Known about the structure:
alpha/beta; 119 residues; Macrophage Migration Inhibitory Factor; four-stranded mixed beta sheet; 24% strand
Amino acid sequence: MPHLKITTNVSKSSVPSNFLKETSALISKMLGKPESYCVVTVVPDQMMLWGGEEGPCAIAHLMSIGKLGVKENKNYSKILGEHIEKHLGVAPNHMYIEYQDIKTADLGYDNTTFHDILG
């Protein structure tokens, strides 16, 4: 159920071929969720500008059922910021990360919702 979406002006050709797989494993470990439920989306080649200057930048959105909060999100910002900078070249101060703790009833999967799956 975790979904990390990264929208960036980094070109598709600059995204390492293993980035999706490595990032999926990272969010699974980071959130303590089964990787079989993890989704990673990268939307490259976007027309974006940060602070009036050109250069690599990104907007990320991490959605999860639980495992998000003030303390956790601070830690996740460090982990994701370092990971994205290492692999995509986007400095942490040129990226926002939005966190969304979604209710089980508000996320559908396999013809039902996670409310039915998780109780």
